[in-house]
Every structure is written in C-alpha cells, then in structure tokens.
Design brief:
By secondary structure, the protein is α/β, with parallel strands linked by helices. The protein has a single domain, classed as Rossmann fold. It has seven helices and six strands. A six-stranded parallel sheet has the order 3-2-1-4-5-6, sandwiched between helices.
C-alpha cells in the first residue's frame, strides 16, 4: 500500500467567515489537518494540496455559485491574499516538496492531472481531508473508488455546514467502501509502521 494525502479546498475563501463561501466548521479542522500533514511529510507520504482559484471575470465559476461569488467580493482569485484569498492556513507550512492541483469543480479528479500524478507516484491509497464533506470530499471519494484507489476519509479533518450533513455523508462513503478514521487513529498507524531506530 502506498498512500498520498489530499488536502482539499482548505483556503481562506472557504475558512474565513468574511467570505461568502465560508464553511461553518472548516476552521475547526485546521489543527487536526496540520498534524496529519506534518506526520505525512515525516513518513514520506506525498502531500497534495487540491485548491480552487477563479478567474477575475468569473468565467470559470460554477453557474450555481456565480451570483453569491460575484456579490460577495469575488473570493479565491489567483494570487490573492487576505480573508477571501486562495491562501492555505499558515499552520500547514507549505513546502517545496508538496504538490498542488488546481481544480475547476468539486471533485479533485474532474478535468485535472491528479490521476496522472498519483499513478506516476505509484499511489494506490488516498487519505482525504478538507472541505466540504458532502461536495468536494464525497465527489473525490467516489471518483477515486471508480478509478480503483483505496480511500480513507479522515473524518475530523473534514467539515460540513451542519453535523447532520457531516454524519450522513460519512455514512454514505463508508457504505460505498471508504474507510472512515479519526486523525488520532491514522497517526497511530504511522507510528506502528515506522522502522525502529537505527534501521536501514
């Protein structure tokens, strides 16, 4: 089994209450996401940021989102900074060894090079984190399973606008074949598979 970590849409434009695209519980997941990111780097697991960015003229914004986006300050513009920006939280500590995919819609696979990257890296298992659980996490999960990847959803590293939505979607993904795990449980699996000190 060779894993990769996906961090989906954990950007200011979704995390900050000032943004019209704010997800209520997303900011609460930042500490757990940061711990998982750091542990993956330490264990040689590729870290892939899957982010959103919209053209200033809105020509690539979803039709169902355009009016809210345009009226709310046009968040997630390329190169933007501040509360509506494309920036990831500083706690994540982006490094030169991380990968980034810009996706145009909900699934991390839709019209992106993600599948090619994963196959070049020899990945067969995805660790999914980010926001939102019913949209970007779920669609990525289903596409990954359709492409024959194993999927683990790190539940406390994902978020929804209500707890009822969160739990219903986690249950659906479990029922379709994804593993649902808490970040503490994931980190324990890293510890149990780490080579002993001094091992080659």
């Amino acid at each position: 089994m060779k894993q990769a970590l996906l961090i989906i849409d954990m950007q200011n434009g979704f995390l900050n209450p000032a943004s019209p695209l704010w997800i209520r519980d997303a900011q609460k997941t930042v500490p757990a996401c940061a711990r998982v990111i750091q542990a993956c780097r330490q264990n040689g697991i590729p870290v892939i940021f899957v982010n959103r960015a919209y053209r200033p003229d809105g020509s690539d914004v979803e039709l169902t989102r355009y009016d809210v986006w345009a009226a709310g300050g046009k968040p997630l513009l390329p190169g933007s900074t501040g509360p509506l920006s494309v920036e990831n939280p500083p706690e994540f500590g982006r490094t030169d060894t991380d990968y980034e995919i810009i996706k145009p819609r909900y699934s991390a696979f839709f019209q992106t090079s993600l599948d090619l990257l994963l196959r070049r890296l020899g990945i067969d298992t995805l660790l999914l984190t980010g926001t939102t659980t019913p949209n970007c996490i779920r669609t990525t999960c289903y596409d990954a399973i359709s492409l024959d990847y194993r999927v683990t959803v790190v539940s406390d590293c994902c978020s929804s606008n209500t707890e009822a939505i969160q739990q219903a979607n986690l249950l659906d993904m479990r029922n379709i074949g994804a593993e649902i795990i808490l970040s503490d449980g994931l980190l324990r699996t890293f510890s149990s598979t780490a080579p002993p000190p001094g091992a080659a």
